[in-house]
Structure formats: C-alpha cells, structure tokens
TrEMBL record, chain A:
Residues 312-321 have a biased composition (Basic and acidic residues). Keywords: Isoprene biosynthesis. SUPFAM superfamilies: Thiolase-like. GO terms for biological process: isoprenoid biosynthetic process. This is Thiolase domain-containing protein. GO terms for molecular function: acyltransferase activity, transferring groups other than amino-acyl groups. Residues 312-340 are annotated as: Disordered. Residues 15-224 form the Thiolase N-terminal domain. CDD domains: SCP-x_thiolase. Residues 242-386 form the Thiolase C-terminal domain. It comes from Haloarcula rubra.
UniProtKB/TrEMBL annotation, chain B:
Transmembrane segments: none annotated. Residues 53-113 form the ChsH2 C-terminal OB-fold domain. It comes from Haloarcula rubra. This is OB-fold domain-containing protein. It comes from the Archaea. InterPro entries: ChsH2_C, NA-bd_OB-fold, Thioester_dehydratase-like. It holds the Pfam family OB_ChsH2_C.
Length: 389, 129
C-alpha cells in the first residue's frame, strides 16, 4: 500500500463573497495548492471534489468535470462527492484511497461552497436538506434547530449550560484573530455571546457558524512519486476513518452523543497505529458550539459528559494542553460547507509544517487530527496527519 | 414545484393518514427495533419481516427547540417549537401546537396530530394533553 503525502495546500478567503461562482472559488484554492506543491499541473491524474448545495445555489449539477476544467484538467477522471457538511472530508478519503490502491500517484482534492447568494432564508433551507426531509424538515427542523435539540438533550443528561458553550465560541474567535483566511478575525466575550439573539433555543447567534463562501484544496502524492520527483512533502496522511449513523435524530439511541465520530476515530487511530494520547492538535467540526463538545468526547479526549467544560477550563485553548481549532474552527473561520473538510486538512497541514500563524502554539507537534461531520453527525470523517521533522 | 395535486409519498403518507385518523402505528422487527414507514428493512438489524404495531396515543417530549430563524416554508410561523417525543420504543419529531413556546418543558405529555397547510403539505404536530 502506498503511503500518501500532502504535497501542497490552498485556501481562498472564507467569508462573504456572494458574487463568486463555485468554479472560480475552487480554481483559486486549487491553483494555490498546485503552486504550493511544486508539482507540475500536468502530473495530476485524478480530481475528487466536495460540494453540498450547488444544485440549489447555482443550479449546477455534474460538478466533477466542471471543477477539473476550472484548473485546466478537463480530461482527467473527476467526481463530485456529496455528504452534506462532510462532502470534502469524504472526497479527501476517496483521494487517499485512490493513491493507496495504486490507481494514481498525484490527486487533486478539494471542495467549494457558494452560500451567501442564497440569503439567510435560502441558505437555511439549503442546509436543512442534510436532515431527513420526511421526518425532520417537514416538522420544522433547521440545521441550528437540530443542534439545539442535541444541546438541550446534552444539558439534561450531563449538565452544563449556555455559558459553557459561549467559552467554545470565545476560544475559537480568539484563535482566528491571526488567521487571514478567517471570516471573523476578531475576539468576542462570553457576555457578547450570551447576549446575542437566539436562533433556535438554546443555540444563539454566537453558538453558530456563519454562512460562508469559500474553497479549499490539497495536492496528494504517493510516497514513490514524492521520492522520485524530490517533492518537499513532510506531512503524511497516516490514518483515515469514516463512520455513519441514522439520518434522523429521532432514530438515534442517544440524542447527546455522536457514535459516527467514535467509529471514524477508532478506524483512523487503528489505521495510523496511534492512540488518542498521541494527538498534539485537533481541528474539529464545530458547526455549533455544542458540536465541538460532542466531538471531543466522541474522539476520546473526554468521557461522555466531561467535554462541556474543556474550553472554560482552558484545556482546549491555544496555550492549553490539548488545543482544539487553532484555525478558529467553523465558528470563526467560517463554514463553506463543501470546502470545510479539506479546509481543516489545509489548516492542520500548515500547523504541522510550521507555516501557520498559530504554529507557535504547537512548536513540537508531530500528530494532528481532523474531524469533519455531516448533518447531525450521520456521517463523520477523521484523518490523522503526521509530520516528519 | 409540481403542478396539480401533490404526488403522495407512499408509506409515509399512509402513515400520516392513519395518524390523522387516530390509528397511528409503527413498524417493529422481531428484535424489538421500532421504525416508521417507508421502510423495507429494520434500520438497526436489517430484518425484513416488520410487524405493524399500535403507536401509543400519547408521548413524552424528550428534547425541543424554539426556532426563531426559519426556512422559507416556515416564514410567519416563528417562533415555533419543534420537539422530539418518545412514544414507548419509538420517537417522532413534530411541531408543538397550542402552547406558549416559552412554557414548553421536557417531560411534557403530548398527543400526535397532522396539520394540512395551504400549500397542501402536511406536518406532524403535537398537542399537550
């Protein structure tokens, strides 16, 4: 089995860019990744692309070839992967498998999402279709509403309150202040978070990720290609895992835990031959503050019911023992849905390589974990990255 | 999206018809896993021999939210309460009616019902007993 290396990474600014098309966003990130990789564009053999809502936002299907064409690779095999918010996480996993299987030596993988052109109501509608149409959406479940249902169930089962969640938002905003790609490069206070308008009780405005346009891309190569072509690619994809669960919350055994993440993490840890204690830095899918709490528990950093105080106790802050979301997370960096999975991998790669503005928080880090979740975590993708210093 | 009478979702709309008539049911496999139609195989164990069981006439709210930012379909409805309610071994998700949103609590006993909206869609609702 071929070892997979990250040769190059690229991002657009994550923010409010309603006028920019998906193809334009993706091309910017992909061209940056190809330049960063110092791999000839012509050597790219395959394109995997993640996107969630372009049928609704741009009236555009069949996006695989469109995105390959946007960077001059129209004749390559290209497939679009749709798995709600884990679309590009799943695309990345497929890209890794493509190289591991020996089907290609150089793969371009990424994702993009255009959302702000839909407006708030339109984007809310588009996001809601990640839930079960018959049993959830028709009963008024929105994306924030679904996480609100989980947050209230969590509080009832384990305790904790909105102030605990506010600390997650405060932490992630603080981390994003130096990230030039982030939608919000400003700090917020616990009081501001608690005073913000409610979206779906108990989820307030500052518990929720914003509506974001953006793209991300990664160039992966096989170990043998990197060696032969003397590619500077110190970061290895050491582990990959994916897990699933019932789509509708009502069909889950527990409303306050996310076993799809547990399954994905277990597979990824085994694949990388590490344990949870080996992880130095983590990017988790904090589409809502409660989602970060559920993630750090399901990943094994905390027992069930114990993750709620992690940010408040400064255990997951920048200078804490286990920093989570040094990029600013989805909360502050933004959540261009289809771009988020590979976006996390771009951030984690830079943090490990030492060229991220927050790399100084983790100077000796060798192992990073990324966690990308779809809907209310009916799908989850976890990757483990290791850097050779 | 479609013109004329809406196309039914077989299984699901039959379930709503029964629920509206006070004859709610769910499906159960021999291992006791409950689910709702349309369903050919148990969502947990894959068993295809699913028996129709009577849905309890009332359930208990397990969790809920007060939605204030809606999708376009729910504009004019806010704030509204969506709840997940346990009916014995199965749960359903619905809109809680006839109640001040701020007074809803976990543990509230509700009965399921079905609303028909002006756009001919139907919505599962709960009313406090």
């Amino acid at each position: 089995m071929q070892t997979v290396r990250i040769a190059g990474v690229g991002l657009t600014h994550f923010g409010v860019h309603p006028e920019r098309t998906g193809r334009d966003l993706f091309a910017e990130a992909a061209l940056e990744a190809i330049t960063d990789a110092s791999v000839p564009r012509d050597d790219v053999e395959w394109v995997h692309y993640g996107n969630f809502m372009a049928e609704l936002a741009e009236h555009q299907g069949h996006q695989g070839p469109l995105m390959a064409e946007s960077v001059g690779l129209a004749d390559r095999p290209a497939t679009r992967h749709e798995n709600a918010c884990t679309s590009s996480g799943a695309a990345f996993r497929e890209a890794v498998e493509t190289i591991r299987a020996g089907s290609a030596d150089v793969v371009l993988v990424g994702g993009a999402e255009r959302m702000n052109n839909l407006g708030t109501a339109g984007a809310t509608e588009a996001l809601a279709i990640a839930a079960d149409e018959l049993f959830e959406v028709r009963a008024g479940v929105t994306f924030p509403g679904a996480y609100a249902l989980m947050a209230r169930a969590y509080f009832a089962e384990h305790g904790g309150d909105r102030a605990d969640l506010a600390h997650v938002a405060v932490k992630n905003h603080a981390n994003a202040t130096v990230n030039e790609y982030a939608q919000f490069q400003r700090e917020i206070s616990v009081e501001e978070a608690l005073d913000a308008p409610m979206i779906a009780d108990p989820i307030g405005m500052y518990d929720a990720c914003p509506i974001t346009d953006g793209a991300s891309a990664v160039v992966l190569t096989s170990e043998s290609y990197a060696r032969e072509h003397d590619v500077d690619a110190p970061v290895v994809v050491a582990g990959s895992g994916q897990g699933g669960d019932a789509l509708a919350l009502q069909d889950r055994a527990s409303l306050a835990s996310t076993p799809a993440t547990e399954r994905a993490a277990e597979t990824a840890y085994d694949d990388a031959n590490i344990t949870v204690d080996d992880v130095d830095l983590t990017e988790v899918h904090d589409c809502f503050t409660i989602a970060e709490v559920l993630a750090i528990e399901a990943l094994g950093f905390y027992d069930e019911g114990e993750g709620i105080g992690a940010a408040r106790e400064e255990e997951t802050t920048r200078d804490g023992p286990r920093p989570v979301n040094l990029s600013g997370g989805l909360k502050a960096k933004g959540h261009p849905v289809g771009a988020t999975g590979t976006g996390q991998l771009v951030e984690a790669t830079r943090l490990l390589r030492g060229d991220h503005p927050n790399s100084d928080a983790v100077p000796d880090a060798t192992t990073a974990l990324t966690h990308n979740a779809g809907g209310t975590v009916a799908s989850a993708v976890v990757h483990i990255l290791e850097v050779e210093r | 999206m479609t013109s004329g009478a809406p196309v039914r979702d077989s299984g699901f709309d039959d379930f709503l018809d029964a629920l509206a008539d006070g004859d709610g049911y769910y499906l159960e496999c021999s291992n006791g896993h409950g689910s709702f139609p349309p369903r050919r195989a148990c969502r947990v164990c894959g068993e295809t021999d699913l028996e129709q069981r009577t849905l309890p006439s009332s359930g208990t709210v397990e969790t809920f939210t007060i939605v204030r930012v809606p999708t376009p379909q729910f504009e004019g409805e806010t704030p509204y309460v969506t709840a997940i309610t346990a009916f014995g071994s199965v749960r359903l998700t619905g809109i809680v009616r006839d109640v001040d949103p701020d007074s809803v609590e976990r543990g509230l006993t509700v009965e399921p019902s079905v609303e028909r909206w002006d756009d001919d869609t139907r919505r599962l609702t709960f009313e406090p007993r």
